[in-house]
Amino acid sequence: MHSILSNLLAATLFLSTANAATWYFLRYNLPSTQQFLSFSGTMVIPKLPKAGTYYLWPGLQTTDGSGVYQNVLDGRSGTWWIGSGWCCANPSLPWGSGFNVNAGDSVAFTNTKGASAWTSTLKKASGGSTASDSFALMGGVLTDRFWCERTASKTFNQVLFAIELTGVSWDFGPLVFNNVVITSSGTDTKWCTNAPENYNSASNYVLSNIQASVSGNVVTCKIGTVNLQSPKK
Asked: What is the Cα–Cα distance from 76 to 127, expressed in whole angstroms?
């Protein structure tokens, strides 16, 4: 449904002049021996000043830079819509379901690795809107009536809190995520407790209540608040 990121480059997070997008993001990078297992939290919906190509999202990027798995808040219609999906190729997967939201709403997102697929669930705190979808990102062969595609299993080593803007500016105020919980394999917790990468030092941001723990070769990273406050002047 969405062609959010058309050019993925592992070293630079798929930033290309062809996209003509302006980027602001925080990124957590894992050691090469670990991979992410789940990613959840609550996104507070900001105001939408006008219809435009506003894409605001939490997401997971692959080790090879081949794609991103994301929960996207989309402002193109003039009303916010949120849904989950994989972008963009190998595999070519349909976009997930979603629903409209308004400024001030809170939407809980959960992305979890299963034996054969990743599952995403979105739930609006008020109004009861929910969306749940599975994405075949664990390798194998995907088929339908018209095509057959062999895919490699996707391993995710980057978590992102991203603002992607094309033809619009950061004019919607802060983007806030609460009650963030990220799990990874392994025992190294520094990826959680060290400061995240702030792409191009472009964002003013605040983090609160960061905690990391290890149990059964699984790291659990808890962040009370991730607040992308504003662009740096």
From this structure: 22
Interval 38-48: pLDDT, tens: 999 999 999 99
188's enclosing H/E stretch is none
Give the residue carrying structure tokens 């105001």. Answer: 47
Backbone CA torsion sign across 155, 157, 159, 162: negative
pTM score, whole prediction: 0.88
Residue 120 and residue 102: Cα distance in Å, rounded?
A: 21
Q: How far apart (Å, rounded) are the C-alpha atoms in residues 24 and 230? A: 9
Q: How many CB atoms lie within 10 A of CB 221?
A: 21
Q: What is the pLDDT of residues 61-94, one digit of tens each?
A: 998 888 999 999 999 999 999 999 999 877 788 8
Helix (H) or strand (E) holding 190: helix 190-193
22-175, what's its fold?
Jelly Rolls (2.60.120)
Task: Give Cα separations from 144 to 40, 61, 87, 147 (angstroms).
Answer: 31, 26, 19, 6
Per 3-state DSSP, what percentage of the chain is helix, strand, and coil (rounded to 5)?
5, 55, 40
Domain ranges (residues) in the chain: 22-175
